[in-house]
Design brief:
The protein has about 120 residues and is an alpha/beta fold. The chain has 3 helices and 6 strands; from the N terminus they run H-E-H-E-E-E-E-H-E. The strands form 2 sheets. Strands 1-3-5 form a 3-stranded parallel sheet. Strands 2-4-6 form a 3-stranded parallel sheet, with helices on one face.
Amino acid sequence: HPGGRGCAGGQHHHRINFDKYHPGYFGKVGMRYFHRTQQMFHRPTVNLDKLWTLVSAQTRSQHANDGPNDRVPVIDVTKSGYHKVLGKGLLPKQPVIVKAKFFSKTAERKIKAVGGVCVLTC
């Protein structure tokens, strides 16, 4: 084994090869996070296109052709086990009150565009 076995000499006699073909192979990047626990980052998400599936079919049909002065349905996504509402998809042109712990900017914009309200819960 004239050059050494495996990656031997990566910082010594094979440095040119490593620098040329594998930049960034050695070293560290960023900060360390000591004792990172996953429950702090637990944030199940739901998209806007699935928002109305969290409500019963009876509620959907009841509010399908409501006027602007009628009662507005309330969708609490935390009751279904979700924490954050994301903005993928389209909402029907019907006002709705959405309760969640977190909203993305696009979700909030789309909910307000149909006349709805975003309510933050804890």
